[in-house]
Design a protein that fits this description.
Number of strands: 8
Number of helices: 7
Largest sheet: 8 strands, parallel
Strand order of the largest sheet: 2-1-3-8-7-4-5-6
Structural class: alpha/beta
Helix content: 25-40%
CATH superfamily: Ureohydrolase domain
């Protein structure tokens, strides 16, 4: 049976997280693939597509740090019917491509909008208003935003709860949407608590037909042993809670 929880190991960071050392989870070793951190070159894209070729977009995909968030594009490329993408991220990841490289952790959402004929709408939750204002207006008809600042207001939560998406949904979570008390990442972070993120995800899982989910936002290892231990504990707990929420809503149990 194809695994419901898939772990893509690029930086070895998951090897330190106790929750993910679960015999029911499938690990994909990506450490030998070069040209993947932040920017993904054509050769690396081909290798990654081959690496995930046996798996569908369903289930949970842990995709390492935010440097590899572009993997969400490769997973959503596998969806061959109309869907909407919901992204929880402190950054909208809608930057123009730099150099000759079409795919990066900073432009992957724009690439999905431009190249995937099946995506109908992208909803970005938790990005800063400053970054949202930099996005090209030509995408506005297919983008919906719930900014970090707007989530401070009750009416935004009510609107989020009442909004309906007609198509099945794929969810992508970058833990940099969370505050530093809830997770530790290698990018600047937002202000959402883990409990608030759980509530937002629960709304989607309760109302929508969810195809699958990917989770990134691990923190690169640090030279300070005690900081490393603290970071791993926070991220291990956050990953476990997010996976538990999704698996239980999908009718699967999670082994401690």
């Amino acid at each position: 049976m194809k695994p419901f929880v898939l772990i893509m190991n690029f930086s070895h960071v998951y090897e330190q997280e106790r929750f993910l050392k679960n015999s029911h989870f499938r690990w994909l070793d990506c450490t030998e693939i070069y040209g993947t951190s932040c920017y993904c070159d054509e050769e690396a894209i081909q290798k990654l597509e081959k690496k995930i070729s046996l798996y569908g977009p369903e289930g949970i995909h842990f995709i390492d740090s935010g440097n590899y968030h572009y993997l969400s594009k490769l997973w959503t490329d596998k969806i061959r019917y109309p869907f909407s993408l919901v992204v929880f991220d402190h950054h909208p990841d809608m930057q123009p491509s730099l150099f000759d490289n079409p795919l990066s952790c900073g432009c992957w959402v724009r690439e999905v909008l431009e190249t995937n004929p099946f995506v109908k709408k992208v909803c970005i939750v938790g990005a800063s208003e400053k970054l949202i204002k930099t996005i090209n207006k030509k995408y506005s008809s297919r983008l919906v935003f719930y900014s970090e600042q707007s989530l401070d207001h009750e009416e935004t939560w009510k609107k989020f709860a009442n909004d309906h998406i007609d198509e099945p949904v794929y969810i992508s979570v970058d833990k940099d949407i969370l505050n530093a008390e809830s997770a530790v990442t290698n990018w600047d972070q937002g202000s959402l608590t883990l409990n608030e993120l759980d509530k937002l995800l629960s709304i989607i899982l309760r109302k929508q037909d969810v195809i699958g989910i990917d989770i990134c936002g691990e923190c690169s290892t640090t030279l300070n042993y005690f900081e490393l231990q603290k970071d791993e504990m926070l991220n291990n707990f956050a990953n476990k809670e997010l996976a538990k929420l999704f698996l239980e809503k999908q009718g699967h149990s999670i082994v401690p």
